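Recall that a protein's primary structure is simply its ordered list of amino acids. Everything else, from secondary elements to tertiary packing, is in principle encoded there. The following example makes that idea concrete.
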Amino acid sequence: MSSPDRDRFEQLMLLHLDAAYSLARWLMRNDELAEDAVQEAYLRAYKFFGSFRGDNGRPWLLRIVRNACYELLEREFSSGVPEPFSEDSHGEESAAQGAVIVLPVNPEAAAIEGAEREFVRRALAALPRDFREVLVLRELHTCSYKEIASITGLPIGTVMSRLARARRLLQATISNGMKRKDTGT
């Protein structure tokens, strides 16, 4: 790759490293596998950067990350290794880098807010992968419907449908969890 292309790659792709890792972590549910997938994705992006056209590299890169995750998951599943849920991957310490977290003034409110945040993270992590994927892309990465369609290779109508179903599933999961919490069952 020529020096100007390398500079353009760094300028357009490296700034999305956090988004790439975050998506991979939600899809893979494992920090080490997410790191492997992101590394593989960046190698592919670098190799095929000559075919990239445009100024917004995020959808293109996130599609490569998504594909790398699914290929790695396929290899892992075919070897008999289950997809683990890692508490460390989805806990407080894994908040997106650069995210601004405003803590309430009193400790009791801070504890309640932290518990609620963890409850929502677990509910999101429990969603089926297809629904979790579109919800993470839309709500955590603020991708447009068009970008999500580009990343996932789905028609926009399917993206909208999955997103609506994902939101309903998440709401139902949270509601059911709150009912269990209230009744102690």
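The chain is about 70% helix and 0% strand. The first helix runs from residue 3 to 13.
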